[in-house]
UniProtKB/TrEMBL annotation, chain A:
Entry similarity comment: Belongs to the band 7/mec-2 family. HflC subfamily.
Membrane topology reported for the UniProt record: Single-pass membrane protein
Intracellular or extracellular location(s): Membrane
Species name: Methylophilus medardicus
InterPro entries named in the record: Band_7, Band_7/SPFH_dom_sf, HflC, Stomatin_HflK_fam
Family matches, as Pfam families: Band_7
Coiled coil: none
Source organism phylogeny: Bacteria, Pseudomonadati, Pseudomonadota, Betaproteobacteria, Nitrosomonadales
Protein name as annotated: Protein HflC
Record key words, sorted: Hydrolase, Membrane, Protease, Transmembrane, Transmembrane helix
UniProt keyword annotation of Transmembrane helix present: yes
Annotated GO CC locations: membrane
From TrEMBL, chain B:
Origin: domain of life: Bacteria
Function of the molecule: HflC and HflK could encode or regulate a protease.
Protein name, UniProt field: Protein HflK
Comp. bias regions, Low complexity: 355-369
Organism of provenance: Methylophilus medardicus
GO cellular component, one term: membrane
Gene assigned in the entry: hflK
Principal localisation: membrane
Length: 289, 396
């Protein structure tokens, strides 16, 4: 009984000593060892460590990359005195935990406040030198790099490294957006109008061209047709001349008879005939001489 | 981390062996503590029941403790083993064992699952509807226009260690990175490029930029895909944009209408042209043949005339006169009578006999020009005679 009791007590005491002196440092953490308020060592590597119980205490700081986000986008003024709303984030990391502890009491909220002030200052300066266009497209990467370098330089004193400053959103305030929309609308309208009148012009051109082609085709055909007809007429004249030339006097007589027949063949042709006409020669007398 | 639930059941198959182990352990412990305590004699002789529970309890505790080291890594996941907070091993899928708490701990990380970030919209599980996030989706382009973009980013992990150890709230930073990357690319592109021809290009460049940034942060994340879900002008100007698109269609339509007109007119003109050509050819042949025919006929008559000129001449004259007079209205006047007193109501005569005559000539007038020509040139007697006969019939 006694043995077991002493065994349990021994184990218990051992456990108490171990738990109060052993500590682990995670892969993701730094550990600061304070001895009575004074930093005695910085544990950067993960693993199992021991400390003096009661006298030494430990604080842990994140080794990972942290993100500083703004809750609301901030208003900045560009060189052409226009407002833009900027939302950005900062990637930062504690690289020197003891400096970090000294400068911001190891308080992340305080560290972020200091960082955001630094970055905001930088943003204000850089935006003030540039137009919206530069900020949005032209020099976006440059601005981010300048801001990163500036902030990094200042933050080193806090034991902080700035990996990246990123402009997430660069937007126009609502009032300005409205006028942008109006401009976009007007632009589209002009594009639409242009397209429509282009269409009308193109259609008219095609039509006119078609009309021209029609005229040309018909005119050419007419020209050729007349030529062919002329050839026919010429040939006919030749034939007639040849035939009728054999006895022109008889042709005149013969053709006249034909012409009479053809000219007077309707009852509406009223003939007032004198009896002395040759035709009535026998009407007047028997013709017997 | 999952415990291996079947462990105890499976290993309790041989209880006698375990008992022996406990007994053995028990005795050893007794000896050990007995020696320390200094009162070993009474314990060895009398088999007191007290020492028995200590060893089995310790044994069971030890086994439970060891058993708590079992865990299963799911397919597609990796187990990250930390020994006193230090990363020592990354284990593959399957049942595994680690040194139990507090020495080692396990973090299970899903490596292969493809995760999605939605930008500019949120879709809901099991629903097709999606809600817009205007704050995210509206962005400025290079030409200071605003467009409305919805983008989905798919990613998985390429390094479990980086993912676990390099960044705090990695998931959240993927979103931030995606947003800056897309806005940066869009900010450097013209609106029409983003909206129309350059959508894939924007997505590809955003993907590359994202991957660069994520690699710089050692996030262990692999961007699988950046897809443009929707790229539109903002709602406020949508109507104007639609109208511009319509105008483009109108342009095409108008062109097509013009072309349709051309396609109508030109073939018709070709038709007219070939009509003219054909008609001319026909006219030529007709005129020539008529001439030949007329000439032939005349020559025949001439031959006969030469044989008996007087008689033939007289006959022809009388034939013609007869024909003429038989077909016309006649007024025979005796010249010797009082010529000046003669009154002829010519206009009445014309109206009486004119009406049917007009009707008879009407069809000839309406026929086309080429058809008229034989009539004007009508030396073809047969034809004119036929015409006479039909007219005669009409009068009766």
């Amino acid at each position: 009984m006694k043995n077991i009791g002493s065994l349990l007590i021994g184990v218990f005491v051992l456990l108490v000593i171990i738990t109060s002196s052993a500590y682990t440092v995670d892969q993701r953490e730094y550990a600061l060892v304070f001895r009575l308020g004074e930093i005695v060592s910085v544990k950067r590597d993960p693993g199992l460590y021991f400390k003096m119980p009661m006298v030494e205490n430990i604080r842990y700081y994140d080794k990972r990359i942290l993100t500083l986000n703004w809750e609301e986008p901030d208003r900045f003024i560009t060189s052409e005195k226009k407002n833009v709303l900027v939302d950005s984030f900062v990637k930062w990391r504690i690289i020197d935990p003891s400096k970090y502890y000294v400068s911001v009491r190891g308080d992340e909220v305080q560290a972020e406040r200091r960082l955001s002030q630094m970055v905001n200052d930088g943003l204000r300066a850089e935006f003030g030198k540039r137009t919206i266009h530069d900020v949005v497209s032209g020099e976006r990467s440059e601005i981010m790099e300048i801001l990163r370098q500036r902030a990094d330089k200042e933050s080193r004193q806090m034991g902080i490294q700035i990996l990246d400053v990123r402009l997430r959103r660069v937007d126009l305030p609502k009032e300005v957006s409205e006028s942008v929309y109006q401009r976009m609308e007007a632009e589209r309208k002009s594009v639409a109008n242009e397209l429509r009148s282009q269409g009308a012009a193109a259609a008219e051109k095609i039509r006119a061209d078609a009309d021209r082609q029609r005229e040309v085709i018909i005119a050419e055909a007419y020209r050729d047709a007349q030529k062919v007809k002329g050839e026919g007429d010429a040939k006919a004249s030749e034939v007639y001349a040849q035939a009728f030339g054999k006895n022109p006097e008889f042709y005149a007589f013969y053709r006249s008879q034909e012409a009479y027949k053809n000219s007077f063949k309707s009852k509406s042709d009223v003939m007032v005939i004198d009896q002395s006409s040759d035709f009535f020669k026998y009407m007047r007398s028997s013709g017997k001489k | 981390m999952r415990k291996f639930p079947g462990f105890w059941n499976k290993n309790n198959e041989g209880p006698p062996d375990l008992d022996e182990v406990f007994k053995d352990l028990n005795q050893k412990l007794n000896r050990l503590f007995g020696g320390k305590g200094g009162s070993g004699a009474p314990r060895g002789t009398s088999p007191a029941p007290q020492p028995l529970p200590v060893a089995p309890i310790l044994g069971i505790v030890a086994l439970i403790w060891l058993g708590s080291g079992f865990y299963i890594v799911d397919q597609g996941s990796r187990g990250v083993v930390l020994r006193f907070g230090q990363h020592v091993e990354t284990t593959m899928p399957g049942p595994r064992w680690h040194l139990p708490f507090p020495i080692e701990s396990i973090e299970n990380v899903n490596l292969e699952q493809v995760r999605t970030i939605e930008m500019g919209y949120r879709s809901f599980e099991g629903e097709t509807a999606r809600s817009k996030e205007l704050r995210e989706s509206l962005m400025l382009t290079d030409d200071e226009n605003i467009i409305d973009l919805q983008v989905a980013v798919q990613y998985n992990l390429k390094s479990v260690e980086d993912y676990q150890f390099s960044n705090r709230s990695t998931e959240e930073s993927v979103r931030g990175v995606a947003e800056t990357a897309i806005r940066e690319i869009v900010g450097k592109s013209k609106m029409d490029f983003v909206l129309y021809e350059g959508r894939d290009d924007v997505a590809a460049r955003a993907k590359k930029l994202m991957q660069d940034m994520l690699d710089r942060y050692k996030s262990g994340i692999n961007v699988v895909n950046v897809t443009m879900q929707n790229a539109q002008p903002p709602e406020q100007v949508q109507a104007a944009f639609d109208d511009a698109v319509k105008a483009k269609q109108d342009l095409e339509r108008q062109k097509n209408e013009g072309q349709a007109y051309a396609n109508d007119v030109i073939p018709k003109a070709r038709g007219t042209a070939s009509r003219l050509t054909e008609e001319a050819a026909g006219y030529k042949l007709r005129v020539e043949n008529e001439a030949k025919g007329n000439a032939d006929r005349f020559e025949q008559v001439l031959t006969q005339y030469n044989k008996a000129p007087e008689v033939t001449r007289q006959r022809l004259y009388l034939d013609a006169q007869e024909h003429v007079l038989s077909n016309t209205s006649k007024v025979l006047v005796d010249q010797k009578g009082s010529n000046s007193l003669l009154y002829l109501p010519l206009d009445k005569l014309m109206t009486i006999s004119g009406a049917p005559g007009n009707a008879a000539t009407a069809p000839a007038a309406t026929t086309e020009k080429p058809a008229q020509e034989p009539q004007a040139d009508s030396s073809t007697l047969d034809r004119s005679r036929d015409a006479m006969r039909t007219r005669d019939r009409e009068y009766r």
